[in-house]
Write a structure and sequence with these properties.
It comes from Corynebacterium pilosum. The protein is α/β, with parallel strands linked by helices. The chain contains four helices and twelve strands; from the N terminus they run ααβαβββββββαββββ. The strands form three sheets. A seven-stranded mixed beta sheet has the order 3-2-1-6-9-11-12. Strands 8-7-10 form a three-stranded mixed beta sheet, with helices on one face.
């Protein structure tokens, strides 16, 4: 196993264990999620476009934002694109039209049922909110390791703000990265919004 991959896997293991421990203390997680969601909604509200279009994700139970993220973003954005995970490791996107419109997808992630769009639809977004297991101070993002988001974002990085949502302990000093890893521009934690130095 290459050294970078080995180091990434070690960080993933630590971050997953920390999230599991946090999920066990539901009150702490709820407070952290509420803060992250409030900062994300405020970020959308502050965008120059008075009718912003964003892309986001439907959080898994252990991910930042939990049940509140999409509702909060929908209250501020004109539209939200959510990813649809395909069996070939690629993402497609569909418009979020409310919780009732979601179905469980290939990876157990809730996804919209409407018409699908390719990654080029992301270029029309004013901001893209991303899940992560960890972010470093240079904007390197550690996902779950399958590369879905890196492939989807490769063509639009630098044109649309990429914003990762993580818990405070998941903002770390350094994450090893490969040439194909797409860094983020900002991170939102329960402590606030932070621009990253790339």
């Amino acid at each position: 196993m290459p050294e970078i991959q080995k180091r990434k896997d070690e960080i993933r293991t630590r971050m997953r264990a920390a999230r599991s421990a946090m999920s066990a203390t539901r009150q702490e997680k709820r407070r952290a999620d509420a803060s992250i969601v409030a900062y994300a909604a405020a970020y959308v509200r502050g965008l120059k476009n008075p009718h912003p279009h964003v892309a986001a994700y439907s959080p898994l139970p252990d991910e930042p934002g939990n049940d509140f993220l999409l509702t909060a973003l929908a209250s501020q954005a004109a539209s939200i694109l959510l990813p649809i995970s395909l069996d070939n490791g690629e993402l497609e996107w569909a418009t979020y039209r409310g919780q009732a419109d979601l179905e469980s997808g290939a990876l157990g992630i809730w996804q919209p049922t409407g018409p699908r769009f390719g990654n080029e639809a992301l270029a029309s977004c004013d901001a893209i909110f991303l899940p992560a297991l960890a972010i470093d101070t240079s904007g390197n993002r550690l996902g779950k390791g399958a590369g879905y988001y890196d492939r989807a974002l490769a063509s639009i990085a630098g044109r649309v703000p990429l914003i990762a949502l993580v818990y405070d302990h998941e903002l770390i000093d350094e994450i090893p990265c490969n040439d194909f890893d797409v860094p983020v521009d900002l991170v939102i934690t329960p402590s606030g919004v932070k621009e990253l130095h790339r």
